[in-house]
Amino acid sequence: MNKNTKIFIVEDELIAAESLTMDLKKLGYQVVGTADSHQKAFKSINETKPDLVLMDIQLKGNDNGINIASELSKNSKIPIIYLTAYGDEKTLNKALETSPYGYLVKPYKIEDLQSTINVALNKFQHISKVEITLAEHQQKLNYLATNDSITQLPNQLSLVENFNGILEYFYQKSNFKGLAKKIKEEQENISQIIPILYVSLDRFPLIRDDLGHDVANFLLKGIAKRLQNSVYLDTFIARLEGDEFALILPPIKTKQVATDLAKILLEKVNKPFMYKNQEIFIDSSIGISFYPLQGEQINQLLRNAQKAIEQIRQIGGNQYQIYSPALHSHNPKQIVLESQLHHALENNEFEIYYQPKVNIKTGKIIGSEALLRWKNKEQGLIAPSVFIPLAEETGLIESIGEWVLETACNQTKLLQKRGFTNLSVSVNLSIRQFNKEDLPQKLTKILSITAFNPNFLDLELTESILISNPSLSQRRLNMLKSLGMKISIDDFGTGYSSLSYIQNFQFDTLKIDRCFVKDIDINHKNAAITKSLIQMSHQLKLHVVAEGVEKESELAFLQQNNCDYFQGYLFSRPIPFNEFEMLLQNKNK
Ligand code: C2E
Ligand code: CA
Ligand code: CA
């Protein structure tokens, strides 16, 4: 028996407590404290941390030793021996529920006190040992359940269970805004994304059937090693089913980091293996999805990365591919189109057409709207309504949009230099561009490279872009305005069409959509709306542009009602730069 054993006494009768203390000391125990009530007991036991508690069941008033014991057992493991003068069955049953280590009936003999304590301490020691062994077993079982026995990597179950933990880890390590919700709230802050790389061998079932399971397992182990040796320590690698592996990378800012790594991984993984002097060649493919862009749940992210692999397989495998919603559509045409869109910029397949914007009073061209055209080698001219949504979905709109801005400024600058000094240009901005945090910097850079006066650059935004995040938009607009640019609200009439609401935003021009302009001379409703829109805009000191004017009669109506500018087929369709310059020479000189 350990003479240093610390014992605590809960006993409401002072004399009983004192005699018990003396007995214990006689037996060589240390009495670290006594208490006569629930509150005192709880506090001192937590402070003195005894090895054993002698607990009187019946305490003064409503106090009860059993309640103290069950509360103690919630946050600590201390063996308890109950002291009781008499025991009715109900009370003893209740005491039993708290798994006590012994009972001592008062009055007790000192030998009984000694043996009851001994038994309790032995029992406690034994149970503690069993619990530790159980925990070890549990750990082993967990390991088997969450690790793959061939590669020793975590398995799919482990990946699924730990995904949130991994996000949290990245979050703490790099200040990653790990909560998808938060990211969605501040779309401009999608500056960090987490890539999920799904690696899969292209013909694994064939290899296994031809060469047997030993070779297959050898390859799986080898690939696991190669993957582990090719990535940062922080990367989480799991083996999924069959020949599939998943890698979760630390947060990155651009997708290119992930595609660069995919390239390297393919090179390293696809080197031939030597098995018993025999060379084995393998090909693998990598599908990529990004948290939270393509899903917030790991299962969804894996599914999407897998879709990208299926797509690669259709074109022969041995590549990497970022998941895109177009893959979902299973529309081969769209899939081809999208993969071509990825290369359209570098292949110089884009061109800007310009549609003149005309002053209704003078009939002179005051500027133009830059409208993007894609000259696809196979399919010819593709309309923006087809490829702009695709570019938006895939994020390509960011680089394409930058190209449009720079080219429009460059070409318009050229025309300004050739004598059309006050010519302005309007460029359409997509929601993704507008919400990008670095838009002001990008614009400033483009303006300085092209030496373009920002007063002649007009950015066209739709009402829905502004309304999707009003406070952010307001800040954005103020920033752009302070740089000297002009802002137009595009397609007014197709969305919420609330002038009273959007007047809270800083902008210069309202563009009335073609649906209101159409047949304005005979459609009374359209006429009434357009008329009041023009009046209200003027009261708010806004300019008004009418879009899609096709008929003389429509133009006449707009003229009568003091509309400022118009665009439309009546004057000119969108035309290539050279033709636009000729048109300017004809009409404005
Ligand atoms: P939008 O900004 O409303 O552009 C006006 C559209 O109306 C253009 O279609 C133009 O060709 C067409 N249009 C002009 N006058 C008439 C007319 O009298 N009658 C008819 N029926 N249509 C007329 P387009 O060029 O096909 O562009 C479609 C949309 O694609 C644009 O609508 C714009 O939202 C988007 N877009 C075009 N270029 C870009 C770009 O560089 N960036 C972004 N983000 N979006 C662009
Ligand atoms: Ca527009
Ligand atoms: Ca428009």
Strand content: 15-25%
Any low-confidence stretches, pLDDT <50, length ≥5? Answer: 176-190
Strand order of the largest sheet: 13-14-16-17-18-19-20-21
How many beta-strand elements? 22
User: How many H/I helical runs?
Assistant: 24
Task: Describe the protein.
With 589 residues, the chain is α/β, with parallel strands linked by helices. The strands form four sheets. It has an eight-stranded mixed barrel, surrounded by four helices. It has a five-stranded parallel β-sheet with strand order 2-1-3-4-5, sandwiched between helices. A five-stranded mixed β-sheet has the order 7-8-6-11-12, with helices on both faces. Residues 176-190 have low confidence and may be disordered. It starts with 5 loop residues before the first strand and ends with a helix. The longest helix has 37 residues, at 110-146. The protein is 50% helix and 19% strand. The structure holds ligand C2E and calcium ion (CA) (2 copies). Ligand C2E binds next to strand 14, helix 14, helix 15 and strand 18.
